[in-house]
Amino acid sequence: MASPMKEGILHILQYKFGMKVWKKNWSLLYPASSNSIARLEQFDAKDWTNTPERQNTKRVERIIRLSDCISINQNQVENPPKETATFNIITIEKTYIMAASKHDVMDWVKCLCVLAFQNTSTKKPNEDISASRAALPGDSLRMEENELYSTIPQGAVLNEIRKMCYPV
Fold it and tell me: Is the dihedral of CA 56, 58, 59, 62 positive or negative?
């Protein structure tokens, strides 16, 4: 079994009976491998022990596929758990609002962005890190454009470039 890139406590905002509730989860962040996809697995923190025999019997609360991520960024939420900072993971299907300890939140966001949006550039240590599939200015994290969804045929784009560079 692959070892996680990062692990630790993450709180997730849930709605129960119309009330906002922060649920504490033990989270494991796995990179993609030949046998699996990049993902964030979350378990109930009360059930988590690090013994090998218990790891196979734990019930996974949720798995967030990082290939489904559209955006990952820090945000401000009212009444987060004590000594935490919050961030969003926006996927194709759902938006997850998470909280991590204030000193660890940037590391979580950075690791998630690296795995979700493979093409990254270096950031200065004190800069806010966030990313999305849309093109971002400067040297922020970015994902390459996917030609599959382009409305202009690739051949037409290449012909236009050739005309601009090599006038007849």
Answer: negative
Contact, 159 vs 102, CB < 8 A? no
Q: What DSSP string describes 47-77?
A: G----HHHHTTPPEEEEEEGGGEEEEEEE--
Consecutive H or E run containing 103: none
The pLDDT confidence band at residue 136, using thresholds 50, 70 and 90, is: very low
Nearest Cα residue to 23 out of 97, 102, 109, 108: 97
Q: How far is CA 22 from CA 58, 77, 89, 122, in A?
A: 21, 11, 15, 32
Token pair of 164 as six digits: 């601009």
Q: Is residue 51 a contact partner of residue 58, using CB atoms and an 8 Å limit?
A: no
Whether the CB-CB separation of 97 and 53 falls below 8 Å is answered with no
Burial of residue 131, with CB atoms counted within 10 A of its CB: 0-12 exposed, 13-18 middle, 19 or more buried: buried
Residue pLDDT, tens place only, 107-134: 999 999 999 987 544 444 445 555 555 5
